[in-house]
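Sample 1 of the test manifest.
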Amino acid sequence: MDGLVRRFGEFTAVDGIGFSVEPGELFGFLGPNGAGKTTTISILCTLLNPTAGTARVAGYDVVRQRDRVRASIGLVFQEITLDDYLTAAENLRFHAVMYGVPAAELPGRMEPLLDMVGLRERADQQVRFFSGGMKRRLEIARGLLHTPRVLFLDEPTIGLDPQTRTHIWDYVDELRGREQTTMFLTTHYMDEAERCDRIAIIDRGRIVAIDTPDALKASVGADTVTLATNDDARAAEELRSAFSVEVEHRKGALELRVPDGEAFVPRIFDVLTVGVTSINVRRPSLDDVFLKYTGRDIRDAEAGASEQFASNAMIRAWRRG
Amino acid sequence: MAAPTVPAPAPGPPSAEALHAAAVARNVRTVQMVWRRELIRLQRMPSRIISGLAQPLLFLLVMGAGLGSLIGDQGAGGVDYQVFLFPGILAMSVITSSLFGAVGIVWDREFGFLREMLVAPVSRTSLVLGKALGGGMVSVVQGVVLIVLAPLVGVDLTVGRVLALLGAMLLLAFALTSFGIVLASRMQRMESFQMVMALVLQPMIFLSGAVFPLENLPGWLAVLTRLNPATYGVDLCRRAVLPEATRLTIGDWVVPVWFDALVVLGMGSLFLAVAVRVFSRTE
């Protein structure tokens, strides 16, 4: 059972996407509207068949071993998929039955999950009386109920208040530590993307970049080091001659761009003969990364209904083609 | 109490048989759960029962009395018209609520719950079977409320007759719910379902012998009614409570009860199979 590698191998479904995700990894999927995020997830969840290529989830082929895949994954969709006329507990129980959670284990699993999402008091209330945020929290609890090995989260915290988001993320981290659950996330919150072990940026059905958030940011270019000294003119002179870098005077401080800012800072102190009053290293943000690879600002890509439509249109287009 | 000292089974991949057994158990429980969901939903929406009663009551009491007085002592199918109408209206109620029950799938699609079911590691057959049984059960529950009216319109009921009637209604409900699932699974939106209701439901009821006897009809009408599977369901219900009523014939052949049951069951199984297939393809 150990040594299990989750491989989402080569598939041409969207446009020749191929990558693999390690067990226990938190993998993020970023992309503008209609880029193919939801489509890719639908294929991985066996809701859509790939036109060409193969994909394996939790070691199972998404086409030939569909039920095995389904039993191993949890899903939290963008849209609500609860039964309004059932209570929260009934929705969870229904899910547990379909995923073969033993009835004896159910209360022990349900209660901590309901606690996590703050719905314990509401367990026996019908879902139609819930607010949008409560419904989403219940969906997340449901997605985790059968302790899936891979959890797909398609914009999971959209429309949630910051407190609930933090809550959910704490639990997600805990779960990852304890159960080695692999998480596959699409999001447009940069702070959530930052939490990922690795991020894939997808655009027009292709993966344009895939790496750790830090490496992606490094790929954008240099870090910005800002420093204030007792004698800026002299410091600038010393830095120029020592590192042959360009030093700009900006807003009463010195600014220079270097590839690895954090490693560069100690070297500054070896060179400078003047006192440094403050120093700051700013790395490129994921916004910069996104802009570089897609040519668009992440704000344009904010998920909305349009992504769903766009990817549905794409699906239809393949089927016709 | 000493703890049992059975050693924990060695961790390892479960055997193929164990996985298979687990899958079977999961599917069986899923059928029950989908079934129960239908009943829970009915319980949470009692208005469905009341609105489901309005039409049959109008037919039975108002049309039954009105047309009954027109027809007079001559009666219909060998009995008083209102008595004749009673099992027909029961069947009509079952047919209507079964088809409407299947609307649920279109709703599920709109509100996403269908997706939750479709991504679960359970077979399409379990989901469809649960839905057909649950939906059928719901429409029988609605029909049972009408049985209470029997004495009011002069139908004598015995325990045996009620049981036979329940059996007939269950069979009919199962068949029509399966049919409804097939229709619903092809439909993307609520509006198209309304259209099918008008194009399918009403002709089906009017051509079934629910509201008029099927003897001495013009040739074309006689053919259409015998081609309508609902006719046999209606006949089944009528035989259950009115053994004295005139029997359904095809040409000179008097249709036996087992034939009625066979047609309804066959229709149900056929549509169930089609529903499973169609469902597997909607992904």
